Fold each of these.
Amino acid sequence: MVEYRIHQHPVLPVPARDAVEFFWNGNPCTGLAGETIASALFANGVRVFGHHHKDGAAQGIFCANGQCAQCSVVADGLAVKSCMVPVRPGMRVAPLEGKPALPDVQGAGDLRDIPTVDCECLIIGGGPAGLTAAIELGRAGVRTLVVDDKHRLGGKLVLQTHKFFGSIDACYAGTRGIDIATRLERDVHLFENVRVWLNSTALAVFSDRRVGILRDGRYYIVRPEMLLVAAGAREKSLVFKGNTLPGVYGAGAFQTLVNRDLVRPTSRLFIIGGGNVGLIAGYHALQAGIQVVGLCEALPECGGYKVHRDKLARMGVPIYTSHTVLSANGTEEVSSVTIAKIDKAWKPVRGTEQTFQCDTVLVAVGLDPVDEFVAKAREFGLPVVAAGDSEEIAEASAAMFTGRIRGLEMARALGRDVGEVPPEWHRTAEVLKSRPGATIAEDLPPVTSGAIPLFHCSQEIPCNPCTSVCPHQAIRIEDGDIMGLPEFIGDQCDACEKCVAICPGLAVTLVDFRKDAEYPTVTVPHEFTAQSIKAGDIVTVLDTEGAMLGNVEVTRVREAKANDRCLMVKVRAPREIASRIAGIRVQEPWVTEPSELLVPHLDDEMIVCRCERVTAGEIRGLIRAGVRDLNELKAITRAGMGACGGKTCPSLIRRLFREEGVPDSQIIDFTRRPVFMEVPLGAFAGVSADGAPPEDAPVRHATGAHEGGL
């Protein structure tokens, strides 16, 4: 099989790992120690993991986060989520064809008492909000348990190779997410009163105010005095023809494969959604050597930060606003995608269809909070608070700050003398949650001599690291408002380039006329490998919006540790265009040209419930027949009854109700019951996934017991 791995990356180190031989469908494959089955399969070119029992549709990865069961395979005789289970030497993996069968277990097992663990505060989620809360609770001496279902702390921070916005003091602005994760993980481990359980999945909050946790295959009951839910968010889905084909998956899954597991899962990528998640995923793809064919966004403008949008555009990625996806095309896997312009009524405009050859379609159309634990805790009277995306969808910088606030509030509630939350913390949190503000036309100052930094950011967002690093304090934001735009107020710049290197949006350049007034030197930040560009190269430079300015010569490429893996590329450019240069094109125009192929759009055949293969037509028919209760829809069609536990389809079903003119007030929602995640039945009997008992758990002999899938 062909190997699809990343052996060189401009930001991420590529560590040496031991090879692991396993078998796919009887054929030998090579994985790496510690990686999941899904990543190992992708690295070996496998995209189809099985076929659905209902209609034979091909199945592949979707969330890569354990939230669905789309990537299920049979590993050593058991049906497992391939994105959550590490590959082991000699493991025999096969496609999941049809319904999984319970293993043939002979004899009786031993039932064991389930250990109960007490703590003052239980934190579900070891991402940015959970970690900052744990640090505050650690300082206050609160006995805290942090549980996270991954093998390391950090949550989505471990996928974020870009630099953060905000301020340096409040949320590490100018530092990469991967490095922030390492810092927070280190700080949490400083406190003996804070325990961390990794590879631990929270299953449910029960009516006796206890929380079930599956830790390394063993079941535990945790009895907290207070609960903090910082479980993050799950990605929203979208209904379109072919939306369940292998090759259609979320941006988070893509970042997991690329930035965590260093697997190149695609060669040609198309992105649906112009929020920060989609825009950043496109940039990460380019860094990994993946062609980004285009991005479409239904709104007239991208909803993410303009600097993210501009960064993609000036690297050669076309952005189609006021467009929607009509279909992902292919039989077993994605081979192309069809998009079209939409009118003011959000309907596709006939004749505007375009089809692009690609093998992957990333769906990045927003996030939903993981808040089921909050709802159940409140229902059962367990004191609970939420932080980060579980409370409100915002940037990770805001999650870190709200985590600090919730940690301090919980310490006070538990009787610790920690004082009030400083009022400025609340103000900072609200600013960090702010949506992008006004976009102002770029107004570059006229410059013909000396050296000066130029700021190509023209949208009000919470960001000011450039003001903090200038050694002469010559960069300021008007009125000191972090949402304002920076400006250079000094008499002369000594061209230290610190502001160029630290800018999270790569939106600062430096123009230096001191050696040549007619052909000044322009320093451009460039986060690609040093091998990809060198002195003497002729490169195409673009303005902020991605318009081509011309071809210029690279005179120097500077690597420096202080620049934090950001190359300083110096080009010699005519003075007429020097100040307008904002970036260097990394992808040629032919990559993004549409195909002549056109695929028709078929509404009612679209899949709404991925797990049970329920179509939009089936749901629409029942809505038109008068059904208003989602539980009734579930009983008739099985929509929401699948392995994901109804995490993906409810919002899509509600959208169909809206399209049929039914207001939300008439809809009865799904009834949520524990458990929220699949768990082997044997775990509730105290049997671990590997057959070993929990520590200190007494044995109760049983007449018969075996593990199976719920």
Amino acid sequence: MSIKQALISVSDKTGVLEFAQGLAAQGVKLLSTGGTAKMLRDAGLAVTEIGDYTGFPEMLDGRVKTLHPKVHGGILARRDLPEHLATIEAHGIPTIDLVCVNLYPFAATIAKAGVTLEDAIENIDIGGPAMVRSSAKNYAGVAIVTDPEDYAPLLAEMKANGGALQLATRFGLAKKAFTHTARYDSMIANWLTGLEEGAEAQPTEAAPVPAIFPAKLQLAFDRTEILRYGENAHQSAAFYRDTTPLPGSIAAYTQLQGKELSYNNIADSDAAWECVKAFDVPACVIIKHANPCGVAIDGTLLAAYEKAFKTDSTSAFGGIIAFNGEVGLDVVNAMNERKHFVEVLIAPSFTAEAQAALAAKQNLRVLVVPLGRELNKLELKRVGGGLLVQTADNFTAQASGLKVVTKVQPTAQQIQDLLFAERVAKFVKSNAIVFCGGGMTLGVGAGQMSRVDSTKIASIKAQNAGLALQGSVVASDAFFPFRDGLDVLAAAGAVAVIQPGGSMRDEEVIAAADEHGIAMVFTGARHFRH
């Protein structure tokens, strides 16, 4: 199918002049609208403005421009049906073979501070989506271009094929176009259905406040890769990124080397990265099966790594390691000296020397992820026939918000250790108990059905690693329902505890702490992680 006439009407004008020049150089007639037409004409291109083409001027403040039979007839006429071609010929409607359209910037508009409902409504495109959908429906005869990234490849294909685009190309463009309009409509629907009641009555007043949870939730993700398998070898899997992933999220990774990532690699890498981002000082997090098996902070990444590794060197084998700073050769050498087998290594950057040393480990997956501090707003979990959506657990305890509930007051150093422990416990599967001291985890108990079992396991883990718990502090992700867990950690040597509080037996647990001479603070916020 040769391209003889093209309609260009874009909001995002990135690269469109060069695209139009390339089309004109191949003998394509150009139609355009408003500002796009002016830009092309100013550049010396021969272009027919849409009002001159249809015989009707743009009207209603630009709301009506391309909604005309001479536009849509030229797009929608089937080239394989003589009666369609006879009809448009009888009405003096030439075919339009390529449509280049992108839509009003609704996303950019609603992202502005103070945007009003009227501002948002005026940035809902009507004619654009109609042309995109018409063109995509008739992909057999029309090429629809919505992405500036496609300009150069399309010009090259036309040049190589005497001005024609292959059917497979047009079909691919149509799929992209329908996705484009679907996401555009979804964005509008999510924003409008999420406004508080009464917003429609004051469209030009203060910015309406969007609700956290829209009544109708539309989601959009881009598949980035097909994975080898899912959690298990008999399951299929793929990785999808949010259309606008947070800069500091695991979805923004760049893989420097190693085998392709697996389903479990990505899940564990996310757990490691979210945990290590929580610290403002040099930190190392080692994850195994979605749980931290070693977390530490120190003055350098090397020191943090050495401390994290001590927590549970057995579980660290085959784990995921994340650092929140640039990894140097010293860290890589320390890993090699320990013969520490690692599945994935993550950091914001690696020195050239570190990369050279890591290159010898061809199977090691090395990821670079920008260290963004922006936090996720919502978390989603698929269940049978539905979707659970919640605000993300972005609560982190601060010293000023702690409530001391025991006779013994925690020391300044114990408070720092308690805050570190609470930060780690937030990323441990419930029920979670974490012994800490000196800026490192000493024993981690995760995922047990009872809190006392998690406490016992954490204590055993520390013993297995040869780490003394005398003088340690403990974080619990939720309240102690009975005093038995507190008795276990006291027997292990803990001297201070941080927990949310809120149990019917809080007084019993506090009394047990006083009995053991343990300091206890409440945060008021639990960290269940399922």
